[in-house]
Amino acid sequence: xxxxxxxxxxCIIPTIKCTLCCKLCxxxxxxxxxxxxxxxxxxxxxxxxxxxxxxxxxxxxxxxxEIFMRKDLWQIYEYCLTYRKKFEKLILITNAxxxxxxxxxxxxxxxxxxxxxxxxxxxxxxxxxxxMTDLFMKNDIPYVVKKxxxxxxxxxxxxxxxxxxxxxxxxxxxxxxxxxxGQVVMQNFHLYRGKFQxxxxxxxxxxxxxxxxxxxxxxxxxxxxxxKEEKREIIRHFNxxxxxxxxxxxxFSENVERFPAAExx
Length: 265
Ligand code: SF4
Ligand code: SF4
Prior knowledge:
By secondary structure, the chain is of the alpha/beta class. The protein has nine helices and eight strands.
């Protein structure tokens, strides 16, 4: 029996549609354009496949796009209860432009303290923040608000990571950047439509065809050539060294230039 595969962050992207169109979106929503939501059936299959590979994850996260655009995702939050022993907390990330539907609230409440809604507050754009926090307070749903405007904002603003050309950094610089990258430190692994990768940039730049990931950079959940153990081994080593996408990444380190968050196109 192989060693258990335990993750820190497992983030599923159920939609690439968003209510906002942020110029520097790190998930490249404006570049994707109008892409259909991932169907409930496909999400359920992806969840079954990923939990066949992964023994446990601290956080099981859902991020878009904007997840509350969908009125059917309660089915997914409910389905994830069947894997409740395999994760500590359900994390839902929203830009507070839309309230969750009643069904979402009903199912989220069933997680008790095992859920947290993370509200990215973009000031004037996140005009439902107050209504949303009132709703969560009323329903005893744990939440946090991360402020992305004005003084003392999260991360001090955003980086411009919307370019994909190789920046010509030395191998040593790329290793250093990767080692100190927040995505690597947090082990923030992302899943979209059957493809699993070690960071959102690598995954979504690959989906967009902007980079070609190395064999060791991704796992295709539906690939029948690799065995389950081979896939687990790739996931275990996602963060051992830089990925192809690191070559074009500005990184999220402290000395990288910051821009105002959520500037709209
Ligand atoms: S709110 Fe902005 S940053 Fe967040 S997913 Fe939508 S477009 Fe991207
Ligand atoms: S591409 Fe590399 S440096 Fe950029 S976010 Fe991903 S792991 Fe970090």
